[in-house]
Design goal:
The complex is a heterodimer of chains A (about 350) and B (about 325).
Chain A lengths: L10 E3 H15 L3 E4 L8 H4 L4 H5 L4 E2 L5 H13 L3 E6 L2 H4 L3 H8 L2 H4 L10 E6 L14 H5 L5 E3 L4 H13 L4 E6 L6 E3 L13 E4 L4 E5 L1 H16 L5 E5 L2 E3 L3 H11 L2 E8 L4 H11 L9 E5 L8 H7 L3 H11 L28
Parallel strand pairs in A: 2-3, 2-4, 4-5, 5-7, 6-7, 10-11, 10-13, 13-14
Antiparallel strand pairs in A: 1-8, 6-12, 9-11
Helix pairs in contact in A: 1-9, 4-6, 10-14
Chain B lengths: L3 H25 L16 H8 L7 E4 L4 H6 L4 H8 L23 E4 L6 H14 L6 E6 L6 H12 L4 E7 L2 E2 L2 E2 L10 H6 L4 E6 L3 H18 L3 E6 L20 H8 L3 H12 L3 H25 L18
The chains are: A alpha/beta (about 350), B alpha/beta (about 325).
Chain lengths: ~350, ~325
Amino acid sequence: MGRKVMSRDRQLTYAEAIREATEIALREDPRVVLVGLGVPDPKGIFGTTGGMRKMFGKERVLDAPIAENGLTGMVIGGALAGLRPILTHQRVDFALLSLEQIINQAAKWHYMFDGRGGTVPIVIRMIIGRGWGQGPQHAQSLHSLFAHIPGLRVVAPSTPQEAKGVFLSAVRDPNPVIFLEHRWLHGLKGPVAEGSAGLPLDRASVARRGKDLTLVAFSHGLIESMRAARFLAEAGALDAEVIDLRSLNPLDWETLSNSLAKTGRLLAVDEDHRHCGFAAEIVARAAESDLVLKSRPRRITLPDCPSPSTRALAAPFYYQARDIGRAMLEVSGRATDAAAGIPVEEKVDVPSFVFPGPF
Amino acid sequence: MTARGKVLPELYRRMLRIRLIEEEIARRYPEQEMRCPVHLSIGQEAVAVGVCAHFREKDQVTSAHRSHGHYLAQGGDLFAMLAELYGKKGGCCGGRGGSMHLIDRARGFVGAVPIVGSTLPIGVGLAWAAKRLKTGARTAIFFGEGATEEGVFAEALNLACLHRLPVLFICEDNGFSVYTNLEERRPANFDFEKFFRSHGAGYAAGHGMDVEEAHRLTGAALAKLQKSSVPQVLYFKTWRYREHCGPSDDDHLEYRCSRQVAAWRKKDPLDLAAQKLRRQMKDFGGWEKKHNETIRSEIASVWERVRQAPFPPAGSLQERIWAGKS
């Protein structure tokens, strides 16, 4: 992942990386504006927008009424007339009120007016909740809902470095970008390069090289996948290649198929419902391709039911790194004993690497 | 177009042009060469022309499903509009949108889409950018009374008033959403004026069949907007002559009472303007005939070009999904 170019001592959290990218974006282009309910409030969208209003003023850093669809239309119109708005939603679930504008207008504007209507350079941040009892309407992922729509770029970075680079490219891109960020990633620390370099919006990266199995993941699912892959490699049980998708639309099939050609085995991880989910798309692409797999591909997903609030039901709802590890071994036709030692979250409704609750 | 005496002939000419174009669409629609839904503006020409006469190419006008009149009044290219209805490559959307997706950004017509209420917040955003980037552009958002029933209407009006944006909201109330009467959609004591004013917007109501009044009220609203930075709402009662969607008269379905139909027909915007012009001009008949013929010949020649224009190639299907590279 090009770690050698990063300074090892510069560690930022994922939230700090988004904050840094936002500041760079606002500084480098006066057309960039930041909009959303709570953007300038004392908590600043989990620390991702803190200090922005002081630095860039009320005209460029806007708080907002509770009007998701109206605000989305407003940022679309603003983008059509020369602004580059960033809109934030504190949960994906609230953004559902703006699907009309996102799907009918933002995604289609460039295509349906045959390029003569202008472009819609907007970034819409949507935060995926999990745990601490957030329940059915504060913890949806809905990856495939957005990825299904032609004309919408959908990105779901998984590391602080990716969050920064992808965010910067998203703001600079002429297309509407749905930026999905998992709440549990906000506290995750990692090396982040200085400067204002962006990362491509349509390329996956190889998070770990390996030869036995291709493990495809993104967003928070990548963190769990890497835990499982590292553990099994260290245990000498399996040498998996982990593909960090980063972008759900467009999909970087080239990186994926290169890996599959090498390993011949596929496990797709998606922290979202199973039915018509993104992992199904990965498996379908592999099934339709010329690649001959050595074993049946598999999916690790959330079940097809809403996410309940109580921690008693969070345990059976969420998969853990250990579940991924077991499936990796099964797809590879190996004994699953080695997965038993994979550390799991002590509490499935609270992230172990950081606890910034109560959300 | 400011000197009062000279305004009305030009307003009339513009209305006449829209009327004749729309009637030709209706006449040719059964040929089944225009294979997209059409929502004709016949009967509703006055507001489109009266309002747009104040808007320039650098300004920003948006509309909805019934947008032919607004597009043409704003100077939208006739060939591009008709070619769009025929699904031709030279259409304003390259044949991808049809009648409900008109656009001509070079003339300040920033777009029309058929989802009711959808261009309201987009228009507000256009005005927001104009204010923030200091372009001096003014925005007009055309919508029907039905759009005010959408939640996004309140959101858009609130955002415009909150940020004191340079925008005019133009409500054309033709009383019906498809076949559904306003009485089925709003309580009997619903008050449009109070509703609009409750957000802090300025408000004026006018006779939607009287192009001079629409023109005068728009001028006054723009002056108020300029002075106060408070968004303005203009509300006009009007009447569509044809069916909601399609070329025909559908009054035989009796969803509109026949007395009402007859009363509105007596207020035809072209007839109203013609009555005034007969008093103002020496030879209105001759003047009208000359323009009528000029417009008809323009229509005939553009139509011929449109019919002969090529369709987009099949290979272009997936072009321009993305803007920019990749």
